[in-house]
């Protein structure tokens, strides 16, 4: 099928390449000429495992093209909207500027019978408003939320755990059938395909992210209790996680969640609920947010306390800058936030990361960056693990770290290290919510 994808960021670029990889003819459109130039060469403008491969395959096959010209959307049967919906600068609500611009820019190129499929995460009610404009052209609007995780985006797009398509009123059933064809390989595998109204589809996405954020903050709240009782939150998580109703995933206590989705999505959800007069229904999301942010303070405090009450002029090795491993995304990264706070306390902070240094340097040039993990650790007074890349969590042994520095303080912001091994090697180990 001929498809267009408007917006070629983390969501759109992956979607365009993934759709080409399953056999569609896809044009990706973005206003950012530099991004389009990179993508057109079959290169990924950001770090995402598997993306360079499907991009270059798609370009080589001729099925995948990128352009800044919206007119290229003409003739596509389905137009996916994958632009960003960041948090507004002066509030918690989502900024819909890019979604509105994408849809309005697309309108002149729509033909009757076309389908516009929104993928961006939007406040509930947005799709119904957009539908009026889209349907005036004879095209149909559906909402098809995206649940991809950065780091696993290619796999999550080609082989999602569910597909959700929200459709409006009469005659829109045909649109759901077209989406079923778009996702034919996943549908053939028996992937659940759920057809809803527009509002439900919009809400599915924010509800899923709100639940995930709540799960992480729940275990981080237990970490806070563990810290004053001497309990171990990782054992607690293992034990409650065996209950299949609870499950162990997303019970990783540490410095909490960040990234381009969970933080802004729970805030936008709160803001929208307030507008709808139901602020109290999701008032708990404020607590979820606050618990999450408190964990960054806790990590900083553990370093300062471990250094005897002051980080001033101490060399601190910060392992990780990305908001999570397998990503170069530093949007709302707890890791980088901890590094910046330590820098603000007068510490000599050196940050390393396998993928995110360039992005981090652009936003926080005041920090020192070092590509080599070992050079980062060399002569450090304290080491803090804040992004659980395998290079730090699995591959770094305490014996090796001991050969690089005489400092013997390690703070494990992700509870990813073997506490017993580090202690046995003579290190003072502090985890999050662990004795
Ligand atoms: C999230 C959702 O998972 C995805 O479905 C949605 O489409 C977009 O938002 P993503 O932002 O890529 O995906 O990251 P995710 O893997 O959910 O992690 C979010 C944050 O939570 C990271 O900072 C991660 O380190 C943190 N996290 C995750 C924890 O602190 N503990 C955990 O147990 C799991």
Summarize the structure.
This protein is an alpha/beta fold and 435 residues long. The chain is built from 18 helices and 14 strands. It has 2 domains: 2-191, NAD(P)-binding Rossmann-like Domain (Rossmann fold), CATH 3.40.50; 232-435, Rossmann fold.
Structural account:
There is one protein chain. Helix content is 44%, strand content 14%. The chain has two domains: 2-191, NAD(P)-binding Rossmann-like Domain (Rossmann fold, 3-Layer(aba) Sandwich); 232-435, NAD(P)-binding Rossmann-like Domain (Rossmann fold). The longest helix has 32 residues, at 198-229. The model has no long low-confidence stretch (mean pLDDT 97). Helix 1 (10-21) crosses helix 3 (51-61), helix 9 (198-229) crosses helix 11 and helix 9 (198-229) runs parallel beside helix 12 (284-306). By secondary structure, the protein is an alpha/beta fold. The strands form two sheets. An eight-stranded mixed beta sheet has the order 3-2-1-4-5-6-7-8, with helices on both faces. A six-stranded parallel beta sheet has the order 11-10-9-12-13-14. The protein binds uridine-5'-diphosphate-xylopyranose. Uridine-5'-diphosphate-xylopyranose is lined by residues 146-150, 209, 212, 216, 250-252, 254, 256-259, 261-262, 323-324.
């Amino acid at each position: 099928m001929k498809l267009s994808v408007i917006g070629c960021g983390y969501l759109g670029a992956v979607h365009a390449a993934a759709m080409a990889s399953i056999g569609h003819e896809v044009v990706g459109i973005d206003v950012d000429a530099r991004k389009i130039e990179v993508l057109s060469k079959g290169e990924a403008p950001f770090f995402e495992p598997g993306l360079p491969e499907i991009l270059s395959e798609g370009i080589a096959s001729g099925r995948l093209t990128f352009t800044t010209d919206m007119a290229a959307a003409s003739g596509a049967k389905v137009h996916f909207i994958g632009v960003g919906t960041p948090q507004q600068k002066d509030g918690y609500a989502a900024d819909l500027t890019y979604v509105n611009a994408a849809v309005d820019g697309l309108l002149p190129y729509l033909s009757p019978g076309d389908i516009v499929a929104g993928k961006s995460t939007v406040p509930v009610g947005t799709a119904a408003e957009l539908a009026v404009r889209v349907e005036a052209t004879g095209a149909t609007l559906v909402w098809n939320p995206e649940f991809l995780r950065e780091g696993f985006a290619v796999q999550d797009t080609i082989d999602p755990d569910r597909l959700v398509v929200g459709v409006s009123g009469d005659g829109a059933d045909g649109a759901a059938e077209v989406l079923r064809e778009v996702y034919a390989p996943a549908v053939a595998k028996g992937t659940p395909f759920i057809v809803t109204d527009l509002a439900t589809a919009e809400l599915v996405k924010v509800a899923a992210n709100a639940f995930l954020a709540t799960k992480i903050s729940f275990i981080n709240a237990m970490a806070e209790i563990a810290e004053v009782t001497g309990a171990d939150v990782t054992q607690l998580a293992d034990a409650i996680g065996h209950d299949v109703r609870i499950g162990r995933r997303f019970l990783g206590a540490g410095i909490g969640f960040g990234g381009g989705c969970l933080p802004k999505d729970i805030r936008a959800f709160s803001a929208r609920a307030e507008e709808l007069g139901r602020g109290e229904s999701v008032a708990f999301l404020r607590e979820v947010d606050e618990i999450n942010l408190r964990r960054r303070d806790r990590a900083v405090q553990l370093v300062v306390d471990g250094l005897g009450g002051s980080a001033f002029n101490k060399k601190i090795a910060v392992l990780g800058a990305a908001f999570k491993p397998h990503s170069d995304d530093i949007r709302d990264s707890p890791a980088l936030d901890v590094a910046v706070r330590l820098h603000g306390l007068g510490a000599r902070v050196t940050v390393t990361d396998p993928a995110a240094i360039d992005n981090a340097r652009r936003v926080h040039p005041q920090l020192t960056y070092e590509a080599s993990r070992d050079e980062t650790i060399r002569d450090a007074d304290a080491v803090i693990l804040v992004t659980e890349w395998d290079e730090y969590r699995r591959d770094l042994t305490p014996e090796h770290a001991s050969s690089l520095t005489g400092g013997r303080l390690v703070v494990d912001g992700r509870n990813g290290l073997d506490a017993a091994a580090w202690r046995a090697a003579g290190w003072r180990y502090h985890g999050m919510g662990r004795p």
